[in-house]
Design a protein that fits this description.
The structure is a homodimer. By secondary structure, chain A is α/β, with parallel strands linked by helices. Helix content of chain A is 37%, strand content 13%. Chain A has helices spanning 7-11, 40-49, 63-72, 85-98, 113-121, 163-171, 225-235, 245-256, 258-281, 303-312, 336-349, and strands at 27-28, 80-83, 104-107, 125-128, 148-151, 177-180, 201-206, 219-222, 285-286, 293-297, 315-316, 328-332.
Chain lengths: 350, 350
C-alpha cells in the first residue's frame, strides 16, 4: 500500500461502469441509456439559463427541482432529496441510513455498486441469493438486519417485484428499506404510494433512464421527511451544491414535459417486446423485463464470446464476469434500427 | 436521535454556505463569486454540447477536462483529478488521504468545511492557532501529524503565505499536505511548481472564483499520480460520473480562454485595491488580501450589526459568528458599481 493513502483506500474495489466510447458510430447498447434524446423543452430551459448567471452558485437545496418532483408524485419538498445522479443519492443513503450495527441485506445478483458502498463506508452486509430464474422472495429476508436495499425492477436481470411483495420487504426490517427504482418507469410498480404508510421506506429514482438525461447527472430520493433530513445532513457535510445551474434547469423541464416522457417510454417498451421476440427466435432464453434492457443467454454460446464478437461488429452490450450471470448478456433496448442492427450482427455470429 | 439514522448522522454539524437569494437586485458580496460572468466561449461550448447527446453518460474520468488543466500547468492527465466543485475534491482527499491514525492539523481560523469533513469521516484533528493578525507560521506545524491542510490564500482572512513558507509546510509532514488554492489566481503564489519535487503535496483549485463558474460546480486537484490514484479510487467507489456533459464542455472552454481569465482577474484585483482604500477611509481595519474578498472590521461597530444593517440596505456580506473573527466582515470584491454601492451604504450606516 502507498504510504500516503488512508488505510481504507487499499481495500477498495471500485465500481467499473460500462464503456463510454468516443466513437459515436458504435451501436451502443451497453449502459442502458435512453435511445431517444431529452425533451426539446430541456434544451430550451438550459439555453435560457446560460450566460452571466453561471458565475453564481446554484440554489444549494435545489428547491425548484425538488418542488417539481414533489408535485409529480403528490408529495411536498420535504419528501424529496436530489443528488448528482442516483449513485450519489445511494452513497449518501448507505452512509447516513444503512450503516447500522446489524448487517445490511441485499440480493446476490443486483446492482454491483451496493457492495462497493459497503466497503467505502465500512458497512457490514450479507447477500441473499435470489431464487431460480432470479426471482426475489421476501420470505428470504425474514431475519435480523440493519436495513435492506434492492433494485425494483432488478438490474441486471430486469425482473420486477409486484407491489404487495415490495410491501412485505418494507415490513421485513426495523431499519430503512431502500427500493432502487432506476428502471421503474419502463414497467415496474413504484413503491412511492407506500411512503405515506411506512416511515422506513426510501425510494430512489434517476433522470438517467426514462428522462433521457444520463449526461446531466440527476437522481433523487423520496421518503418521509425524517429520512430526507438524514440525507441532507450528510450532503451538507460533503458538498453544499452538488447540482449545477444547468442540471437544475434541465431537470425541472424534463419533469414538466409529461408528453415527451410518456411517448418515449412507450416507444422503448414497444421496442423491448419486438427485440425480446427477435432474440427468442434466435434461440436466446430471455428473462421477462420491466426495464429498458433485456437479460438473455444463448444455450450454445458463452456470454463473453458473444459480447466480444458483437464488439468486433460495432455493437456494444454488457457482460458481467460474475457467478450465476456470466452466461448472460445485458442488452439495452435501442431504437428500432439499433435493435435490428444487433439482431443482424447476432445472425452472423450464431 | 432518529432510530433510522446511522449513528454518525446525529453527530454531524453540517457546513452552512452563504445565502443564495432569489432576489437578483441585491448587491451580492457574500459568497466570493466573480462579479464578471464566464467567457463567451464557455456559453458557446455549452450550446454546442446541448441536444440529443445529453441522453448519454459523460466520460467518467473527465479526460478532456483533465487534459486541458494538465496542459495549462505543464503536467499530464495522471496528475489531475476533477470533481463536482472543490468541496467534493476536498471531501475525497479527506477520506482517501488525510484520514490517518495521527491527527490532521489545520489553522484555527480557516475554511469552516475542514472540521465538518473530519466529523463526516471520523478523522482525528487538531487546530493550530494562527499568529496575531492571522498570519500562519510554519514553525507551529513542527509536530507529529497525520497530514496538514491549509488554504493559501487563507479564507476568510485573505492572507497569503509566500512560496518558501508553503514549502516548509510541505516538509512538516510525513503524510499528505493539502494546499487549498481556491483564491490563488487573485494574487497568491501557487504551490503547483513544487509538485514535481514533493510526492506528498496535493494542490486543490476551483473554477468557482477566477473562472466565473460557481454555477457549474468544477474543482480539481493536482499532485503526483499516486495521490491522484487514491482520489480516483474513492470517487469510483462513490459516484462514477460526477461531472456532467455541460460542465465538462464549460470547463474546457474556460481554460482555453486565457485572455478572458487574465482580463477579469486584473479587473477584480484593481477593484479590490480601490475598495480596500475606500474602507480604510471609513475607518475600517482591512487585512491585506491576495483574494477576491476583503476581511475588515470597524473599531466602533460590531460585525453582526454592520452585516445586518447592510442587509437592510440590500447589500449582502458574510459575517462569521466565531471566536477571533466575529468582529469582522468578509466582503466579496464586486464590480466598481457594486463596491460603490457598498461604500455608500456603509457611509449611511456609520
Amino acid at each position: 500500500m502507498n504510504r500516503y493513502w488512508s488505510p481504507l483506500v487499499a481495500r477498495l474495489s471500485p465500481y467499473v461502469p460500462g464503456e463510454q466510447p468516443a466513437d459515436l458510430n458504435l451501436v451502443k447498447l451497453n449502459t442502458n441509456e435512453n435511445p431517444y434524446g431529452p425533451s426539446p423543452r430541456v434544451v430550451e430551459a438550459v439555453r435560457a439559463e446560460l450566460g452571466d448567471r453561471l458565475r453564481l452558485y446554484p440554489n444549494p437545496e435545489s428547491d425548484a427541482l425538488r418542488d417539481a418532483i414533489a408535485r409529480l408524485h403528490g408529495l411536498t419538498r420535504e419528501h424529496v432529496f436530489v443528488g448528482n445522479g442516483s449513485d450519489e443519492v445511494l452513497a449518501h443513503a448507505f452512509q447516513g441510513l444503512l450503516k447500522q450495527s446489524l448487517p445490511l441485506l441485499f440480493p446476490d445478483v443486483t446492482y454491483s455498486f451496493y457492495p462497493v458502498y459497503c466497503d467505502l463506508y465500512e458497512i457490514a452486509y450479507q447477500t441473499v441469493p435470489l431464487r431460480e430464474s432470479f426471482e426475489l422472495d421476501p420470505a428470504d429476508y425474514q431475519r435480523e438486519n440493519g436495513g435492506i436495499v434492492f433494485a425494483n425492477p432488478n438490474a441486471p436481470t430486469g425482473r420486477a417485484l409486484p407491489l404487495p411483495q415490495v410491501e412485505r420487504m418494507v415490513l421485513a426490517s426495523e431499519r430503512v428499506v431502500l427500493v432502487d427504482e432506476a428502471y421503474v418507469d419502463f414497467g415496474g410498480a413504484s413503491a412511492i404510494p407506500l411512503i405515506a404508510k411506512h416511515d422506513n421506506l426510501l425510494v430512489v429514482q434517476t433522470f438517467s433512464k426514462s428522462r433521457s438525461l444520463a449526461g446531466m447527472r440527476i437522481g433523487f430520493a423520496l421518503g418521509q421527511p425524517h429520512l430526507i433530513e438524514a440525507l441532507t445532513r450528510v450532503k451538507n457535510s460533503f458538498n453544499s451544491y452538488p447540482i449545477d445551474r444547468l442540471a437544475l434547469a434541465a431537470g425541472v423541464a424534463a419533469i414538466d414535459d409529461r408528453e415527451w416522457f410518456e411517448d418515449t417510454r412507450r416507444r422503448v417498451i414497444e421496442s423491448r417486446n419486438t427485440l425480446s421476440a427477435g432474440l427468442a427466435r434466435q434461440g436466446f432464453e430471455v428473462l421477462p423485463s420491466a426495464t429498458n434492457f433485456l437479460f438473455a443467454r444463448h444455450p450454445a454460446h458463452t456470454g463473453a464470446a458473444l459480447a466480444s464478437a458483437l464488439r468486433a461488429r460495432g455493437v456494444l452490450v454488457r457482460h458481467f464476469n460474475k457467478p450465476r450471470i456470466d452466461s448472460y448478456l445485458r442488452i439495452t433496448v435501442g431504437r428500432p434500427d439499433q435493435c435490428a442492427a444487433l439482431l443482424q450482427a447476432l445472425e452472423h455470429i450464431l
